[in-house]
Amino acid sequence: MTNGTFPIIRQVIIGAGDMELASKELREAFGLAKGFADPLLEGINMDDETFRVGPEAHLELVGALKPEAPIAKWTSKVGGGGGYGLAIQVPALGPLLERAETLGARTIEDLVVYDRRIVQLHPGDLGILVELDEIPEAEQWFWDDIDAEVSENPLIDDVLAVEVSNPDPEALAQKWSTLFDVPVETVDGVLQVAIGARTARFVKGDVKMMTGVDVKAVAGREPADRKVKVSGVNFTIV
């Protein structure tokens, strides 16, 4: 594991109107192996594919298995795809849920999955879906034992930061600051908060979604293009 600093951004979740195309583009852009699926999501008509990015982080594509699935409406609304949410590992949910309540951030799911409690907070309140996964062992994650393909020559091996677009980035940054009990910082004129060892940035935009992701190039690899757009998300290889 590279970071292990709570809270830990474990999965960057990207909504895709065309799962097959988005999967192909991600794999080709970053030298990733074919991803794996969470079998529980099929029960809510959601298609998904998760790609390992180094030893700790993941990129996850989600789409609709049926037209009536809520994700289908969302991807259509944002133009076919975009950054949908984050899955964040935390050691204890209690303090975060108390702060979420003070913010008026609504809980849309509170359930036990794979023997771990997870809570999802409403994207209407936090700009994107925020899933908090209570796993107090920093070195453990849901997918540690899953049988997944391994890329022989990956281009990237970590997720460094995400960028969230919102009409009021100042107010949104303050909400995240309160939720995670960290200060808002301004770097190169952009508001950001630290999420453990990674960063969430907040920029002004009409569409409420995650619009950017910074990923780390494998040492010694020189990307042909450091800017890649997949399913409405602008990736920057650092």
Structure description:
It contains five helices and 14 strands. Helix 3 (94-103) runs antiparallel to helix 5 (169-180). It is 19% helix and 42% strand. The two termini are 19 Å apart. A hairpin with a 2-residue loop joins strand 10 (190-195) and strand 11. It has helices spanning 19-30, 70-77, 94-103, 123-126, 169-180, and strands at residues 8-16, 46-53, 57-64, 81-90, 107-113, 116-121, 129-134, 156-166, 185-187, 190-195, 198-204, 209-217, 227-230, 233-237. With 238 residues, the protein is α/β, with parallel strands linked by helices. The strands form two sheets. A seven-stranded mixed sheet has the order 2-3-1-4-7-6-5.
Which H/E pattern describes the elements? EHEEHEHEEHEEHEEEEEE
Q: Report the helical percentage.
A: 10-25%
Radius of gyration: 17 Å
Structure summary, number of beta strands = 14
Q: Which stretches are poorly predicted, pLDDT < 50 over at least 5 residues?
A: none
Strands of the widest sheet, in order across it, are: 2-3-1-4-7-6-5
Q: What global shape is seen? A: globular
Concise account of the structure shown:
With 238 residues, the protein is an alpha/beta fold. Helix content is 19%, strand content 42%.
Keywords:
14 strands; alpha/beta; seven-stranded mixed sheet; 238 residues; 5 helices; globular
How do the helices and strands line up, and which of them pair or pack?
Layout: E1 8-16, H1 19-30, E2 46-53, E3 57-64, H2 70-77, E4 81-90, H3 94-103, E5 107-113, E6 116-121, H4 123-126, E7 129-134, E8 156-166, H5 169-180, E9 185-187, E10 190-195, E11 198-204, E12 209-217, E13 227-230, E14 233-237
Parallel strand pairs: 1-3, 4-7, 8-11, 12-14
Antiparallel strand pairs: 1-4, 2-3, 5-6, 6-7, 8-12, 9-10, 10-11, 13-14
